Amino acid sequence: MDATPSLLKETGYISRPSCVSIGPDVTVQGGYYWNIVEQDSVNLPQLTIGYGSQIEAGSHVQCGHKVHIGRNVKIGPYVSLSDHAAHSKHPGYPTWAKPEKDPRPAGELMIRDGSIIGAHSVITGPIMIGIFCIVEPHSVVVDNVPSFCRVSGNPAIVTEVFVPELLDWVKVSSEEERESALASRHGHPLLSIVMPTFNRARHLNNNLHSIYTQICDGDLVEVVISDNASSDQTQLVSAAYTRLFSSARYSRNAENIGADRNIALVSTLAKGSFIKLQGDDDYWIDGALPDFLGIIMNHLDCALIHTNQFKSDGQVYCLEGGDNFLALTGNNAVSMTMNTMKRSVWEQIGDKLKFGYTNLNHFYWFYEILIRNPKFCIINRNLHRGAGIAPMGYNVGEVGIKNYLEAIQHYEGSLLSSEAIHMAKKRHLYKVLLRVYEIIVKYNLPSDVSNFEDYYTDSYANEDYYEDGLMKLRQISALRP
Fold first, then answer.
1. 123: Cβ contacts below 8 Å, ≥ 6 apart
2. CB proximity list for 481: less than 8 A, separation 6 or greater
3. Peptide bond into 164 cis (omega under 30)
4. What is the mean pLDDT of each run of 10 residues along the chain (481 residues)?
5. What phi, psi does 130 have (nearest 5°)?
6. Which residues have CB under 8 Å from 292's CB, separation 6+?
7. Cα(374)–Cα(379) distance, integer angstroms
8. The pTM is what?
């Protein structure tokens, strides 16, 4: 049965993806159902429902101006939503029973990504419910609800707050307790996105834009920028965002201290429970950041979180141990953007620059973390869109062959088995090295691949597939324009 309300069928603006679920007997008054609204010049009521959201049977939406339901929002049965402010002494009474004189008062009702609205609840007025909030059944919400909070009652009040410093939900029974719990999140957010940068002002701007269009200026995410003495507009770009957003912080080095040292430095500036390493040229895909926060919330016991951008089935699963991490991530873990560390475990590493000469210092961190806490999480989903910048500033053979293999061999017999390393080494050649080398040669990219064959021979000469690999390398070399 097609559950689309008849009012919406008449508008001609229906654009509902199949994964948006609207139950039977859902009614909408005055709104237009769009998946994405861009025609802001159309002076009509607007109702938007994000990808993956569900509205169960018997619910009612009154849209006089604008109602926005984010992605993956779950709305229970017989829920009333209205962008009108409550005008009754009994706000639990359905607001559509007594319409305002002005059918389209200014204001917007926004329910942000991942929130859950319990059955028989009433949400009324131009208010915002933050990401991953829980509204208990039979509640009446007439005020804004901060992200990661639970509310209940009539009128609803905050009864629980997620406190990242404790990695737990804290019950609050007074206004003072609520404010204290929320204030603690400013000094200790859930996630620190740390971004080392050097002379990439345009990419930095695009990256920051991709973040703050998704999280606004909340207290659960901070962004920390470490500028490695850039000579372009990096300072101006950073200053613009730090003025606009209190959660953005900027630090500038007096001189270029190198990539490894800058990555380590910006990580030490993080205050969050989790440190998300972020390349300045890796932009967040729309909607990916709130989803990522939700995944972190479900895997608070993991020491590492790795995003596998080359698989898109959306699965999220946990495993333990170095062999499993190597088998599932391999060279992908070299990309710092694909990895997030639990700060309390990362801080246990003594010399964080022990391998600061390798261009892979952060790669060692991940295995040091697994020694201390073996549990990690894999996300089969691409969260970022790269700017497509060619590998530059280092010799690809030295870092991609010599340094990478020395890194995993460093843990042989302690964290990694010989068999796991042997399999990873072969996989690295056929799945990574040959492909990367071919792209660089074929498209004449400005990457340094001098002595690539020599680095290969030094590391692979004793392998039984050495000759096959050498032949393939030379076939690729012949493609050079």
1. 79, 80, 81, 82, 109, 111, 117, 129, 135, 141
2. 444
3. no
4. 32 38 67 42 75 90 88 94 68 41 63 96 94 97 96 97 97 96 95 98 96 87 98 97 96 97 98 97 94 95 96 93 97 96 98 96 98 98 88 93 98 97 98 96 94 98 98 95 77
5. -70, 180
6. 191, 276, 307, 379, 383
7. 17
8. 0.88
